[in-house]
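Blinded run. Sample ID left blank on purpose so nobody reads anything into the name before looking at the predicted structure. Input follows.
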Amino acid sequence: MRANTTALPETFEAGFSAYTIVDVETSGLRAAEHRVLSVAALTLDADGRVASEFHTLLDPGCDPGPVHIHGLTAEILRGSPRFEHVHEALSGLLAGRVMVAHNAQFDYGFLANEFGRSGRELPVSRRLCTLALARRVAPPTPNCTLDTLATYYGVPRAKAHDALDDTRVLAGVLRALVADAARLGVAPPLLHCPPKETYQSARGLPAGRTGPKPPCVFVYPGRFEPGSVLVQGMKVAFTGDTATDRPELISRAEAAGLEVTGAVSGRTSLLVTNSPDGPTGKARKAAEVGTPVVSEDSFLRMLDSVAPGRRKGEQAPVAATQVRAASRPVPRTGPLAGRRVLVVGGTHDQAANARARIVELGGSAAVNMSAGVTDVLALPGGTLDRRCEKAAEMGIPIHGNGLLEAVAPLESAPTPVPAIPDPVSLARGQVIDVPVAEHGTTWTIRASWLQHGEWAVDLVAFLVDGDESVASDSDFVFYNQPESPGARLTIDGPAEQSMAVRLDGLPEHCRRIVLAAALDGAGVTFGDVGALELEIAPGADASVVARATLDAATEERTLVLAELYLRNDNWRLRAVGQGYPTDLAALARVYGVDVDE
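Blinded prediction complete.
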């Protein structure tokens, strides 16, 4: 157990008095559909002690949901104020301050929706997720739940799933995490709000939707040949004015088994327009890629004779990448077994080669400083890195290139920690079976990188079928469409993003999830960003099962990180690390996403 301390790191710029800690209890998990039942907010003084508290139950005007979790029945909530009666009080506690919560995206999303229903805007411009901070600090705990962290840091707990008690407990955990962050030199993962997942697309990618579009249930059969009939699964697009209301046209096309797309590409079967020579971008693109163009009347007649298509999941071929023999993960043996080594300094290639060699020697290569780092490898210029100074202060051994030639375990022992399962360390191309039987079907795949520079890294996922293609644009998960059936993007900080995957909730046609990272910003490459760390865990606050550190080449702007794929009814994870010099739009086209030029 660790003693609490209030020492502030210099990177926590405004001190504790800039923070407001919040917690909500809700009627469900989806902020757009469910309601807040209870909300608590407390402010802190300069020393991190509670300065003021606000707490109230709320009448949601709906069923309170999982009473067995929060204990708030309809009878208990009856007579409580509605949210619009308390938003002024909450605004006073939040305006101009950093909102702090454990799994902050959840609380932020619910509060933003409640403020929106009241005709107001949530007055939060920055938020801090203590779950993300705990992952960066990496205390030797089996997981990062609030209860586990409270026990580790010696913070007393009165009642779980009580908004007011949760905020009081989180205040104590925050003080301890901040102190550990100061000791390690870890910067707070402050995230500007609204986060990028709510932005509208500005790079030719599919526009965001209010919810996932139901995917077409038929396999894409190929392009339409003039003189033939339409086949279920073909892609059609509309442009210009139509006599029939556009929503009705779309509804009739989808009812016939066609997929309506928002852009024209080489995979589009038909463009429907009454002005084929019009100035629209879709018409120009159709002429460029040879997509047939038909009038509205012709299209409506064609709907009467659409040929049957093949439903997804029926005799779909299995991709070669799913049946080739998988290499075994690196065993946790060797002279660096049990060591977590942070590489500092050196050129891009020197650092990448060093990290690969550390994994070969049985160790794990760290991207960021944390409490789990046991050793530092200082390449040329590395001693000038501030993290070397922090490592020396904490007594962490600092090595030169000789570490990469180790043939026997190091004499210095890693800092003793509680018995925590050591994550499997994966090199590029290596595979593990996802332990679904042990941990269930809900998994989080998280990517993080060194927090420096002004660029933005975007985590994306493609849910592909047996033909190695998305069935529809809704199978593409990215910042402008952060949720699809079975997959959801979360942005936890400026240098950490996660993809939450529910394996039993994926579309039936999905045989593989391709996880990739892309750069936003002209002239920036992954050579500037450095290595990305990939972790997979059975939940956002659970212990890590497997980890890989992936380096791209200096000129690459997109990087395929991993594949989560189905083989013989078993889910497997492959670390990929394959980069490309093209942007996200080009990578999306590879997997069949219709991207407007």
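Unblinding after everyone has recorded impressions. The first strand starts at residue 19 and ends at 26.
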